[in-house]
Specification:
The protein has 212 residues and is α/β, with parallel strands linked by helices. It has six helices and 14 strands. It has a six-stranded mixed β-sheet with strand order 1-2-3-4-5-6, covered by helices on one side. The protein has a six-stranded mixed β-sheet with strand order 7-8-9-10-13-14. Strands 11-12 form a two-stranded antiparallel ribbon.
Amino acid sequence: MITISAFTFNPFQENTFILNDETNDCIIIDAGCYSSQEKAQLSSYITEKQLHPKLLLNTHCHIDHVLGNAYVYEQYGLKTQMHKADLPTLEMAPLSGKMWDIGLEDVPEPEEFIVEGDLIEFGNSKLEILFTPGHSIGHIVFVNHQQKFVIGGDVLFKQSIGRTDLPGGNHQQLLNSIRTKLFTLDDDYVVYPGHGPETTIGYEKKHNPFLL
């Protein structure tokens, strides 16, 4: 069974996730740890739970979701796996840092590109990848069908959606990703977004003003 642990990091209040199962193998999704205290919090959790980091994954590569990528590489030797279409977003991250007056270490190049239909495996667990562009050009989400949850990045929020006014954003494409990919899941799937509280597919079908 997968345990999901969320950490809210950096000035953008981004959600970083650590997933582990009974083998104690774990994966890190959207490493946003920025300050020394946040980096220590991430590592302390991994150490205290005796976890074994196996993969670093990115739903997408806006600056708030990659601020901790260099740290994870330094600590655990993991480079991110991501969708190739979001490589320009990753390459733009240092410039975004200057715009926001946020220092950003050189972000390591991706270890591997992943696409829709691939399976992410760690320990005894698997996550399916869905391609969900619109917030960024190469956005993906990670789905576990056994426990019915989605690690959703910045696609669908509680009663909101990801912004589409950044480079690579497309409002209609984002709505289409939600309706044709996420909304095909059962209503009881829990969505863990990149910002804010968790929600469910069924709740958003009924209450999200952008999708009614």
